[in-house]
# Entry
Amino acid sequence: MKTIRPRRKTARRRRAPAVPEPPPAAVLTTLPDTWRPFVGRWFEGEGCEVRSAARGDWEIELTPDLKKRWRRQRVRLVFDPLRATLPRGAWFTAPGSGAGRRVLDLALERPLVTQRTALAQVPGAPESGIASVCRVRGLTWGPARLGPVRYERRIAFHAIVTRWGGLPTQEPWIIMLDAEGRLIEAVNGRRFEDVRTREGLYQIAEAPDDATLSLWMDAARAHFDALMDEREREWESSVGRLRDDELERLGAFFSARIEEEEERQRRRTHASDEADLGHGDATSLKLEWERRSAEVRHRWSLRTEIRLWGIEEWSWPVADIDQELRAGAVHVRLHSLVDVARGLPALPNCPSCGVTAEMLVRRHGHVACVQCARD
Ligand SMILES: [Zn+2]
# Structure
C-alpha cells in the first residue's frame, strides 16, 4: 500500500529578485524585540495615529498635546539601526537614542491606568469560617453563614521606591485603598501574587468623579509617606551600623595620625624651635578628618524617591460572614468580611472593645479579646 506523506510546509526559498530588496526585517532584531511594540502601543495609547511607511518606518500623526510639546505635526520613526541616512526630520528610535529617550521620559511621566477584576474563589470562604483566622478558648464556634458575593471598588497604586545613601536599593510597592481611601493592604511586590484576575471592571459601571480621584491621590500620598517613614526607620537600624563603623574606622585612623604628629612635635620642640610647622600639621589633619567624616555622612544620608508607575482600579469580590460563638447559655453572633478573591475572612472585632482580635476568650459570661480579659 502506498502511503502518502503530507508535504512539508516549509516555504521554499524565493529566488533572488532582480532589484535588491531593502534590508530584511532580520536587521531589526539588533533592537530588543519588545521595543518596537512598546513604542507602537505607547503612541497609540497616547491617541496618535500610527501608519506604516516605506522601509519599515512608521509615520506618526501626533496628538495636539504632543504637537505642542515636540513642536511638529508628525514624526517619522526609523527603527533600522543600519540605515546610513535618515529621511529629513526623521527620528532614529532605539531605547538609548534621542527619540527613544524622549518617548521613555514621557512614558515615565504619567502612570499607566488599568481596570481589573479579581476573580472569586469557590467556595468563597473556608468551611470553618471565621474560625480559620481567629482562635478561641473556652468557647465553641457554630456553623458559618456566608452572605452573597458583591463587588466593591478598590484602587491600587504601584510605585518603585528608590533609597539612596550607602547601599542604594529599589523596592516595588503596591498599596490598595478602598473607595473611601482607607488602606486595605500594602504589598512589597509588583502584583498581587495570590489573586486570579481578568481585565475590565465587573459590576462597576459609573466612573469615579474628580473629587473621588483627588481623595484617592491624597490618601495614596499619605499612605506612601507613612510606609516610607517605617521603611526608613528599618533602613536606619540595618544600615546605620555600617555608616557608624566607617566613621569609627576613620576616627581611629586620624586620631592615631594626630597623636603621632603631636609626639613628633614635642620631640622637635626639645631639639629646636621649629614647632609651628608640626602644630600646623596636626591642625590640618583635624580639618581633613572633619572633611572626610562629613563626606561619609553625606554618602550614607538617606534620600527616598517614589515613582508612581501604575494605577489599577479594581472590582473586588467580598461577602459578609456571620458565625456564632457559644459557651453554655452564652451565644454571641460575630460578623466579619470575607475577601472572596483569596477565600479569606478578615479578623473579627472583639464584641467588648471593638478592636480586631486574633483570639477570643470567655470572660464573666461574655466574649472578649485577650486584651479585654486581662483588664
Ligand atoms: Zn477586646
